[in-house]
Automatic annotation (TrEMBL):
The chain crosses the membrane at residues 42-62, 69-93, 99-121, 128-148, 154-175, 201-223, 235-254, 266-284, 290-314, 326-345. This is MFS transporter, DHA1 family, chloramphenicol resistance protein. It is a multi-pass membrane protein. It is found in: Cell membrane. Residues 4-346 form the Major facilitator superfamily (MFS) profile domain. InterPro entries: MFS, MFS_dom, MFS_Efflux_Transporters, MFS_trans_sf. GO terms for molecular function: transmembrane transporter activity. Pfam families: MFS_1. GO terms for cellular component: plasma membrane.
Amino acid sequence: MPLSLYLLALAVFAMGTSEFMLSGLLPAIAVGFDVSVGTAGQLTSAFAAGMVVGAPLMAALARNWPPRLSLFTFVAVFLAAHVIGAVTGSFAVLLVTRVVAALANAGFLAVALTTATALAPPQRRGRALAVLLSGTTVATIAGVPGGALLGTAFGWRATFLAVAVLCVPAAVGVLKGIPSRQRHTTVALRPELAELRKPRLVLVIALAVLVNAVTFGHFTFLAPVVTDVAGLGEWWVPVVLVLFGLGSFAGVHLGGRLSGSAARPVVVIGGVLMLAGWFSLDVLGREPVVLLALVFVLGVLSFAVGSALIAKVLHHAAEAPTMAGSYATAALNIGAVAGPLFFVAQ
């Protein structure tokens, strides 16, 4: 795989860290701006909203730009938003920077998904997607815990600056590794949107929403399962989260390898096992050893199925070269937002 693909994954790692890191930083942010933790929680909601609307909006905005220009612009905006957020003394400004960062994140991922497949030969496109998406899984393993430790030691602003620093080599990698004359197909927007009328594409998008909704709906409330259901101490929570992250890293690479030759079995068999595992977690998780093993397996299944579905979205939306990545990104983001909201309402 080309080095430029790994540098794109580095940007995804930085953006994934930024997306998930606030859960451990909200109390410090609330104290720093003299607001309640509930008010500080609006930062998470703002980022989630920006991610949902950002993928199609940013992809449509940048659809006539060369991929290198689009990717560099999104990384630069993301970097600038974190620098401004790190130095501002206004909570309102910080809130705006989270929306801007989310829009840039969503736009970057939408373009990067299609760019990654263009950087690899057809028989290795699934693996290229796996490399790109591994940035998100590594963020759950190392980025989020590392951000929490950095925030504890040096303050939450240091974590924002660290994310900005990670974007520098990614931006350089885009300029150096993405060809300036990379083939860029321009199609009218209406035909690209018309791809959403394809029943198979709609089905795959719906499945991607469902998989992410179930995964993040349960993942968000994994800590109470560890402490209340399994009866483990609070210090076991980060251990369980790391196990899930390790499983997701393995799963995204497994799904990438099999997305070309065995996508249907991965989605059908893996999807059924994933649903059964998540919905039986409260029962099977009463035994700590079973819980630890099951969380790892669920990480593998969730991300193997998810990455295979992303590959299928891009395949079925091949006639939408500038918008296909946004369809996949939007599906994942809608699921990630809707899942926790659904489970809160229960």
